Amino acid sequence: MRLKTRRNTPVWLIAVLPILSILVAFIFGAFFIIWAGESPITAYIALINGALGSSFAITESLTRAIPLIFTGLAAAVAFRAKFWNIGAEGQLYCGAMAATLVGTGMIDLPSIIMIPVLFIAGALAGCLILLLPVFLKTHMKVDEVVTTLLLNFIILLFVNMLLEGPWKDPMAMGWPQAARIIDNGVLPTIVAKSRLHFGIIIALVMSIIMWAILRFTVWGYEIRAVGYNQQASTFYGISINKSVLMVALFSGGLAGMAGVSEVTGLKGYLTLTLSPGFGYTGIAVAMLAQLHPIGVIVSAIFLASIYVGADAMSRTVDIPNYIADILVAISLLSVLVGSMLARFRIVWGK
Amino acid sequence: MLELLELILTTSLWAAVVRIATPLIFATLGELICERAGVLNLGIEGIMTIGAMAGWLWVYQGGDLWGGVVFAAIVGMLFGFLHSILVVYLGLSQHVSGIGITMLASSISYYAYTMIIPFSTTPPKIVAFSAFEVPLLSSIPIIGGAFFNQTALTYLAYILVIVTFYVLYKMPLGLTIRMAGENPVANEAQGINVLLIRTGAVMVGSALMAIGGAFLTMSAFDAFYFGMINGRGWICVALVIFASWKPGKAFLGAILFALFEALQVRAQLIGADVIPYQIFSMMPYFLSIVAMMLVARRAAYPKALLVPFRQGDRI
To answer: With contacts defined as CB-CB under 8 Å, which chain B residues touch A333?
Structure first.
């Protein structure tokens, strides 16, 4: 058995790989469910029911997908250029802080202006914090993986400090949370009696914009080129540093918008529990989508359903909801293995 | 200033320094071995978590302490093996695989913990390793009582620094490992199986990371907590760069880092009224970034780090 490089990958294979990966995850996940002493079939039925069993469940899954679309896009655009931004979690909180700073009374404008202002503020905050790792990478050759990861911890401590100190809402009965976003800054819900908010529209629009940028603009071309082959890109006069900067601005901005959308659409205020690791899950979202901005929408909804379903399942069947994280991690690893099949063909025999 | 000097001269401070440094020494050595063989292992954070979990679980279920250490090491090795299959044999992205391993190992740890202890407010404590005084050495003023009145795992960490150094620089095996990270083609020309060497290095390195995690549950906190690794793994990745991939420097780096950490904790107590404690807690992470900035320009990365190797490749 050996591997042969494919000239081009069939389209059906690219579509089938993520589905296969998730199947693999569910098969391995079954062992963990058996370990917990439950039947995988009952558990998975409960999971699917919890995620898609009612119209409320579906809106919950879609609501959970919103931040994942943003962080998935953030990872996808960065990984395209092989810029390893693992700091989406921190950038998300920076966006949330910016929305809180601007949206809790600093300015009060009609919704139609207020909401874009908050999103721009959040995106800027996400970009700004990512500038430090970018500068360290381009000017001092410091690896961005470790700096973006470490910044996550610093930012979370900073949010903690604000919420226990100057930003603590005295009306919150001692809970460490910031003041509410003023009414004009709150995203409207788009389905009655649900939590599904306007953020989903913004997320979808951003996916299309990112797709168009990567597909049709010179920037997008340069980003893809740098990802494929840095030396060749330099040879053709593409500045690597400039491309990395562009990528970082998009990536940080998108992650920041995830924070704005959670604060203004879902919670209404900043807390330390705003994100249960959306930044990290975004990496799985992006990989399952094969780093394609439109694919991100599908994989974000899919992974969000697993999380929502697992929460519901853990209430009825006696299985910790960490099963969702296990399933997502296994799908990430198996789609990575699957990407081999997209690049190579297995030839049996000599 | 004089107070700071007095503080630095106390045995209790240095004892804390060594306690903080021990898990970092294990995990930094582990990452160092992986990277020397040409493989970045970002699974470190998750492997430390599951090592902490495995060691705790073994003892909690009635096993003995050394059995727990061995169990943690085996579990770490298994995840190292998974990482090797993906990045050594299949040549996939070491970044993505590492992050995936971290996500998988930590979620399995938390899953298992919630399954075993479903509703508890205070994590159950285990009977952990107790300190053991080394005769003679522990009577050295100030540092003697700090470095040589620790638990067995800390002594194991000292020994491993020396063993790693000896193997890497004084034995043919070490040369082979280093060559796998610098020039695998040359390795192959000698008839050495590069893939096997890399896999072995990643598995041994991962075992050390897991023991580093196990130190936290079996020698420091005596219990398992959610998020207890708290970025220590990532700090170790930075420490490896700071140590320019040398075991001795890794040891010194971990001690230096732990000294700042211990001082930071003490400053937190003194300065709590003026400066929020979070500012102090940020210091270790800032420090790691600064440490990388200091050395990054002249950092001599192993030349084949991140580069997958296929048998029969030519340059």
So the answer is: 82, 86, 97, 100-101, 104
**pLDDT, tens digit (0-9, with 9 covering 90-100), for A8-29:** 777 788 788 888 998 999 999 9
**Quick one: CA dihedral B252, B257, B260, B263, positive or negative?**
negative
Report how far residue A324's alpha carbon sits from residue A304's, in angstroms, rounded to the nearest whole number. 9
Question: What architecture is the B19-118+138-296 domain classified under in CATH?
Answer: Orthogonal Bundle (1.10)
Report domain extents, chain B. Answer: 19-118+138-296
Instruction: Please report the DSSP string for A234-271 in residue order.
Output: HHTT--HHHHHHHHHHHHHHHHHHHHHHIIIIIISS-B
Q: Could you give the domains of chain A?
A: 2-347 (1.10.3470)
Q: Flag whether pLDDT at B314 surpasses 60.
A: no
Residue A45: burial class (beta carbons within 10 Å; 0-12, 13-18, 19+)? middle
Verify whether the Cβ–Cβ distance A329 to B279 is below 8 Å. Answer: no
Taking CA atoms, A275 is separated from A113, A327, B110, B221, B286, in Å, by 26, 19, 17, 27, 23
- Residue of A32, A143, A337 to mutate for B, most B C-beta atoms under 10 A: A143
Q: What angle do CA A303, A306, A312 make, to 5 degrees?
A: 150
The residue-averaged pLDDT of A54-61 equals 93
Which one of A36, A141, A150 has the shortest CB-CB distance to B289? A150
pLDDT in tens, B183-212: 888 888 888 889 999 999 999 999 999 999
A12/chain B closest Cα distance in angstroms: 22
Distance, CA of A186 to CA of A28 (rounded, Å): 41
B223-279 residue pLDDT tens:
998 989 999 999 999 999 999 999 999 999 999 999 988 888 888 877 777 888 888
Smallest CA–CA separation between A240 and chain B, in Å?
A: 18
Task: Reply yes or no on whether the pLDDT at A61 is more than 90.
Answer: yes
Contact between residue A48 and residue A309 where contact means Cβ atoms under 8 Å apart:
yes
Chain B: residue whose CA lies nearest to A333: B100
Q: What would the two tokens of residue B170 be?
A: 């004084």
Looking at residue B315, its pLDDT comes to 47
The amino acid at residue A21 is S
Q: Coil, helix or strand for B247?
A: helix
